[in-house]
Fold this sequence. Notes:
A hairpin with a 2-residue loop joins strand 4 and strand 5 (117-124). Helix 25 crosses helix 28 (712-742). The chain is elongated and about 125 Å long. The chain is α+β, with helices and mostly antiparallel strands. It starts with a helix and ends in a 16-residue tail after the last strand. It has 29 helices and 19 strands. 40% of the residues are buried.
Amino acid sequence: xxxxxxxxxxxxxxxxxxxxxxxxxxxxxxxxxxxxxxxxxxxxxxxxxxxxxxxxxxxxxxxxxxxxxxxxxxxxxxxxxxxxxxxxxxxxxxxxxxxxxxxxxxxxxxxxxxxxxxxxxxxxxxxxxxxxxxxxxxxxxxxxxxxxxxxxxxxxxxxxxxxxxxxxxxxxxxxxxxxxxxxxxxxxxxxxxxxxxxxxxxxxxxxxxxxxxxxxxxxxxxxxxxxxxxxxxxxxxxxxxxxxxxxxxxxxxxxxxxxxxxxxxxxxxxxxxxxxxxxxxxxxxxxxxxxxxxxxxxxxxxxxxxxxxxxxxxxxxxxxxxxxxxxxxxxxxxxxxxxxxxxxxxxxxxxxxxxxxxxxxxxxxxxxxxxxxxxxxxxxxxxxxxxxxxxxxxxxxxxxxxxxxxxxxxxxxxxxxxxxxxxxxxxxxxxxxxxxxxxxxxxxxxxxxxxxxxxxxxxxxxxxxxxxxxxxxxxxxxxxxxxxxxxxxxxxxxxxxxxxxxxxxxxxxxxxxxxxxxxxxxxxxxxxxxxxxxxxxxxxxxxxxxxxxxxxxxxxxxxxxxxxxxxxxxxxxxxxxxxxxxxxxxxxxxxxxxxxxxxxxxxxxxxxxxxxxxxxxxxxxxxxxxxxxxxxxxxxxxxxxxxxxxxxxxxxxxxxxxxxxxxxxxxxxxxxxxxxxxxxxxxxxxxxxxxxxxxxxxxxxxxxxxxxxxxxxxxxxxxxxxxxxxxxxxxxxxxxxxxxxxxxxxxxxxxxxxxxxxxxxxxxxxxxxxxxxxxxxxxxxxxxxxxxxxxxxxxxxxxxxxxxxxxxxxxxxxxxxxxx
Length: 820
């Protein structure tokens, strides 16, 4: 016994340890599961894609600067339909009375009322996440609950909750579909709950360890579980099928050990292509790729851990139920399809090559989108419906913020005037064009007399105030040259007056003080929004679309105009600049992912099949399916969200290639013992259940996300992944076998497997075996490494010998390796 154990392979020893220590692994998983239930609540989810832009981008710098230097009050567009103008005016008054609503903009014009619909522009007293804004927004909803109401705002947004609810529905439907697929493709019914428990444990561990990453994106948080299920359930299916095959000849413990020892290297090798595609995703400049790649790679690794350590124990515990629930094969033979594929081997490949050419051409003409404004989803949530209603009735303004160095109001005023003259600007707002009275702006420089006339302050007191300001500003020359000619920007003098008043150095009568206090509040409000410590902010409302060549050209034009006054340190921030930054990255990221994912997968295939030509043939199938997938978008005039394209191509390259590997691997083995045409038919028949199970699960999961999610980026990822997987399955089951046949000489001539002295032998009867063999045995086997076989042997003898031990009929065929 010791000699037998010492001759076991590493994988057999590892499998034996896992099976015999299964109770320990059960306790480990129970502990990890309990921990994950709590730790899943620690995960920080980031729903702002801007945070994933590189730090040196204009958008990222501008947003960070605005967060540091400016106060941005929360706003809301509130549309009420089926009302009269009088009712709209009454609603405006009611909204103004709500605590936390600072201003309500509504006028009797086309911009705010037409076709029995009114649009109210609300500004709150706090920022988006402040309680005062959230409470005010809730009161607005309550106040107008009896009307046909449509609201567009980030205040109290329920997008995250809606997305979470949608993903729960997707997961539930996906499980139903997966159970249905497994019902027909499994070999025993008891496999199904074992597979679900194994996956459930892996999914829970993945969710429970996300907190270790610091934070994850809302995209990864939403679809990681679904994609983990679709990408990794293959591993559990492979082990389950291995077990049922070994169970025919072995007792449960030995069957699990044998199945696990064979499945670990097989599954690990299969997972490398998927991990390779996800690793390529992590190289994106747009760091959402790194986020998704890391989360999904972790999901794959934890799935492997669950399959290798938890599932063997479950197979042991439920081995009797597995035996009792064995059922007939529901999947029909695909040999008729295989024979048809062989007959049409000179027809489909030329058609496929033509489709690849057109797919490459049309996929390159797809219109990519970088923002959400033009993206549509099949399912629409209430927020999207409201935004569409407001846009359809009153249009949508494209707002941008121009950040310039602060301090020179004259430059700012001239810049604003230049911007106002442009045909694409609807309005421009900065400190330099905010009115103070009928004839002045708050940045106008006023003399003591002008300030006195504007504020009703006594002229002498005004002069004293200016003298104090000059002393504080170290402008002593102004005192000498005459204070009457000294001019100070109105906003600066107002703040100085407030400071002196608070310190008790200036006293005013009650009526004047109240009036000036109100003016100070308005000026302070403007300053908080438009003037920071180092930068001033100019708000530009344009009639440009949020993205497109025209818009991106105008961004350069805005920079050019601002550059006349501020040669450096000018930043432009908005959805359009964000989209422009993303479009700049897309070209490089697309090229990077395309090349690196192909190289990573090619390396895996190269070592898997030990042929230089075979990986190229397999890659041609999957790359062709990617081009065909996105060429359909061009032909149907459907825009593609750039993130979806990058993520789907990476996953499709890494995951769908497994289908091609399965068929190719079986063909390579079978063609050693039978004619190539028969080998293709048999390989297709053997691989079809696995490809069908895996492909249908991934395709259904993707399409479910596409149809049931209202989040544009997530929906498009799911839809394109589902469609791409279906295309890959069709090509793998039809065109790939034909390419293997036609390219067989290329495969053999480019093989670099080291030749060995292998002999192909066939025996019948009682046979003694001593050595390492590969092949098929039909009969009863005694012994593990050495033993006798009663039955038929068809095997390659790699070392040692194999001979008949009795006078039973025997035939021996020795085939030189070169002939093979």
